[in-house]
Design goal:
about 350 residues, alpha/beta, ten-stranded mixed beta sheet, three-stranded mixed beta sheet
Length: about 350
């Protein structure tokens, strides 16, 4: 077997992060040049996998070098590879992954984490939308600093765009301070309208900010959307962890897979003396995640600047804070890694198309 065939054999078993199937089968090997013992490869990866591009490239180079010792030099160049997003049946939403962000109780920073997940995935290069399903306390517009109103074009709701991120929230449609009092059927109707009648475009991820606690919204979303899974946000103290465990139980009861837990306000680093203070305790979410067999996506420290950005409608600037940015970026990476690991373990069947 010549070197080119040996390389292709290795690539056949190398999974695409999004699909979980081999990159050769999916036509993602865009170019392969073998010159003596030197190897040059152009590999296409989807924007869905953007947070994993560097890691995927490194794993592939290491694999080729370990399997093919006769290769003296390996160069792998990554470029975008388009794969159609899945249309969600009659709903009309076109997205590859729909992730609900929930919590067992209010006040743990759930909406902030939902916005940060959406913004972080977008910063990494993915196509992302953010839907505020917390209809009783819609805070996404405030966190993003937008008071625009959605418009209607050709019967479709045009979401509000904040720095290129399409966003939909009942907070854009009601006067500030007005309470939303809806029973289950009305709630279900508006959630369906937000999804079905909004011109989201082709998304890699739709992040859905859920109301805190356990209630009708999770049931409605489970009926409307094939959710990829849920992320549960909590703080370290025991009372918050008890509520987080209830939220996980609720998601599991409606067959929504829990993709991971985030521990917010995990600790505080004094800006003067640099000492670490565990105000609410620390590590509780990691222990609870292990106990419940849920991935732990990471911790976010208490940071005054993050609070200021949220209050000022500049939560997108959270990634500019050196003390917090690595934590936030790691959480976004681990979320995608969690979904990718499930797809690699049980890759979906290829979609069939009818030519005509």
């Amino acid at each position: 077997m010549d070197l080119r065939q040996s390389v292709l054999q290795v690539l056949e078993a190398f999974p695409d992060p999004e699909a979980g199937r081999g990159v050769v089968q999916l036509g993602q090997v865009h170019e392969l040049n073998v010159d003596g013992s030197r190897l040059r490869l152009r590999l296409g990866l989807t924007t869905w996998a953007a947070p994993l591009w560097n890691e995927t490239r490194g794993r592939l180079i290491e694999l080729l070098r370990s399997r093919l010792p006769q290769v003296s030099d390996v160069e792998v160049t990554l470029e975008p590879h388009d794969r159609p997003a899945e249309k969600m049946g009659e709903i009309g939403l076109t997205a590859k992954s729909v992730v609900a962000v929930g919590s067992g109780k209010g006040g743990v920073g759930k909406s902030t984490m939902a916005a940060i997940l959406a913004l972080g995935l977008q910063r990494a290069g993915a196509r992302v939308g953010l839907m505020d399903a917390d209809v009783y306390g819609p805070s996404i517009p405030h966190l993003l600093g937008s008071d625009e109103r959605p418009t209607l074009v050709d019967g479709k709701i045009q979401p509000v765009f904040v720095s290129g991120l399409p966003v939909m929230s009942i907070g854009f449609l009601i006067p500030p301070g007005e309470a939303v009092i809806w029973r289950g059927p009305m709630l279900h109707h508006y959630l369906t309208q937000f999804i079905r009648d909004t011109q989201w475009g082709n998304l890699d991820y739709l992040i859905v900010d859920m109301p805190p606690g356990t209630g009708d919204v999770a049931l409605s979303l489970a009926q409307i959307l094939p959710l990829s899974g849920a992320v549960v946000v909590c703080t370290p103290q025991d009372v918050a962890l008890l509520d987080a465990a209830r939220a996980i139980a609720m998601f599991r009861k409606v067959n929504i897979e829990v993709l991971g837990m985030i521990e917010n306000m995990s600790h505080f680093i004094c800006p003067q003396c640099k000492a670490r203070h565990e105000i609410f305790g620390s590590g509780g979410a990691r222990r609870k995640a292990h106990e419940l067999k849920v991935p732990f996506l990471g911790e976010v420290p208490l940071n005054t600047q993050l609070r200021i950005f949220g209050d000022d409608g500049k939560v997108s600037s959270s990634f500019d804070v050196p003390e917090s940015a690595p934590y936030l970026e790691a959480i976004c990476y681990r979320l995608v890694k969690s979904i990718a690991a499930r797809r690699e373990a049980s890759p979906p069947l290829p979609q069939l198309s009818v030519l005509g």
